[in-house]
Amino acid sequence: MTSTFHLGLSKDFSLILDDADDYNVIIQVGEDLNTKEFRAHSAILRARSPYFKNALSTNWIKWKNNMIMLNKPNLAPTVFDMILKYIYTGELNLTNQSGEDIFKLLIASDELSLEELFEHIQEYLIEKKANWIHENFILVFNTAINLNNCKKLQNYCLESICENPLPFLSSKIFPSLDKEVLFCLVKRDDLQIKEVVIWDYLIKWGIEQTPDLRSKNYDMTEWTSKDYQALRNTLEQFIPFVRFVEISRADFFDKVRPYKAIIPNHIYEEIEEFNYKDVLPKTITLLPRAGSTTKKGKFLSRIIKQNHLKIIVNWIDKKDTTYTHNKKDLGYEFVLNYRGSRDRISNKSFRDKCKGRVASLVLVKIKNTSKIFGGYSSIGFSSLGDDYIIKHGYRFYKSTENFIFSFEHEEDTQNMKISRIINKYEAIMDHGGNGFNFGRGSLSMNDRFLHANNSSKNYENNLNTGTIYTIEEIETFTIDR
Fold first, then answer.
1. How far apart are CA 63 and CA 53, in angstroms?
2. What CATH class has 6-153?
3. Do 76 and 104 touch, CB atoms closer than 8 A?
4. Are 357 and 380 in contact (CB under 8 A)?
5. Alpha-carbon distance 2 to 71, whole Å?
6. Residue 337 DSSP code
7. Local confidence pLDDT in tens for the 481 residues of the chain
8. How buried is 278 (Cβ within 10 angstroms: 0-12 exposed, 13-18 middle, 19+ buried)?
9. Cα Rg, the chain, nearest whole Å
10. What is the pLDDT of residue 292?
């Protein structure tokens, strides 16, 4: 049996990095006033990094006073300090690092061919710095797309775009978006936006990518057959992936028909026959995009799974949790309206996204546990109109259908709990100090904290934990029967 003593090894190498006087490499990083010199050992650098193995083995390295001199002005000192510690000790602590520095570390680890570090930082950004990613989304996405091995971050960005495409499609970078990136988006089944909107933006992108058309300022009266052919060539690979059967007859007439010349004849004829005769296409076999609805076959929650959703639907229908629906779908459409990691976890963000008197579901994943809480409100959460009463100095709304619930973990279908409304007159408290509030504190959100305290007795007492939890993720869905 082989014994390992990695802890001692790591400590000893840390001493070499900090105190040794036998270094033979000086690396100057940064530029202008933000520069710093680091001392290192060529043997260790070569062993740990393919980049340094190559850079330190070439004839063009510079020597000064028997020292190898390297200059990396594109790397910040704070970032290179973390890289050297990782190279020497295999240790990395990102807890107190800013999202910006961690992102710079990702780029640097790619340049220096530190694959293990590169993979770890992608995962760390996604799991721990999701809010920062979304605040700097264009920068992150552009960078991830241009890093060949950055698949995890690329996929995360693509999924985020699919969940809320409009801000990205309407951004300044969209007209110059790389063709393969846009193709990846158009092909996806989970792009949550109306098909006619996808078509509109695809046409705009195609025109911007076709120089002769861009110069004509979108004025189709000036287009020639050559112009249409140029646009057809630009969009050729995209057209088969547009779900034309999802575009209404009116939008087909107004927005698709004018571009008949860019659509292959067999596709256009089938769409036309579908719109005018209700004849299903024979060669166009793409299914409607899943969107975020159960009617379309996919429920896009990162918190619960389909089995949980079936249980919740049974609770909404006041049936036993094991009831099986005869229909192919569950009879409801659940549309993602708010996600904390995308839209920020705060009272204001929640209330801005979840306004109006519409049946809604909220799901909450608790940090550092596997526990999941949630609530169904037949009337929504905030801005619910004038049909309220004032009690205890707060505004309350009535519902006989509301309930709150919990699951022990994402696989739990046995130990879940449900608490239905008891006092229908205080089903929802609409108060700016909360994102949502079921029954004056039975289950309520206060920025990043969830309170489960049924002291008001407005709901059944099954969920009363008397605990304040930290929210890791939160989602809301509007519900339509």
1. 16
2. alpha beta
3. yes
4. yes
5. 41
6. E
7. 666 666 666 676 777 777 767 899 999 999 988 999 999 999 999 999 999 998 888 777 888 888 999 999 999 999 999 999 999 988 899 999 999 999 999 999 999 999 999 999 999 999 899 889 988 888 898 899 888 889 999 989 988 888 788 888 988 888 888 888 899 889 887 788 888 999 999 999 999 998 888 776 667 888 999 999 999 999 999 999 998 888 888 899 999 999 999 999 999 998 888 888 777 677 765 666 654 344 444 577 889 887 889 899 999 999 887 766 655 567 788 888 898 887 889 999 999 889 889 999 999 999 999 999 999 999 999 989 888 999 888 999 999 999 999 999 888 888 899 999 999 999 999 988 999 999 988 999 999 999 998 778 899 988 877 889 999 999 999 998 7
8. exposed
9. 28
10. 39
In single-letter form, the type of residue at position 191 comes to L
CATH (residue range 165-277): 1.25.40
Place of tokens 């699919």: 162
What is the domain partition of the chain in residue ranges? 6-153, 165-277, 306-480
Report the 10 Å Cβ neighbour count for 331.
14
Contacts 24+ apart (CB under 8 A), 225-230: 225/261, 228/259, 228/261, 228/262, 229/261
Give the integer Cα–Cα distance in Å for 235 and 478: 35
What is the rounded CA–CA span in Å between residue 227 and residue 231? 6
Q: Any idea which residue has 């994102």 for tokens?
A: 435
What pTM was computed for the model? 0.57
Which residue in this structure is represented by tokens 């098909």? 195
Residue type, 120: H
Contact at 8 Å (CB) between 111 and 321? Answer: no
**In the chain, count of helices (H) and strands (E)?**
19, 16
Beta strands in 61-215 (DSSP E): 62-64, 67-72
Say which residues have a Cβ less than 8 Å from residue 7's Cβ, sequence separation at least 6: none
Are 5 and 47 in contact, with CB atoms under 8 Å apart? no
pLDDT of residue 290: 56
Residues ≥6 apart with Cβ < 8 Å to 161 = 141, 168, 185, 191
- Distance between CA atoms of residues 6 and 10, nearest Å: 6
Residue with tokens 């547009």: 242
**Coil, strand, or helix at residue 226?**
helix
Which phi and psi (to 5°) does residue 476 adopt?
-130, 150
Sheet holding 34-40, edge to edge: 34-40, 25-31, 67-72, 62-64
Crossing angle, helix 225-235 and helix 195-208, to 10 degrees? 110
List beta partners, residue 452: 467
**CA end-to-end span of the chain, whole Å?**
63
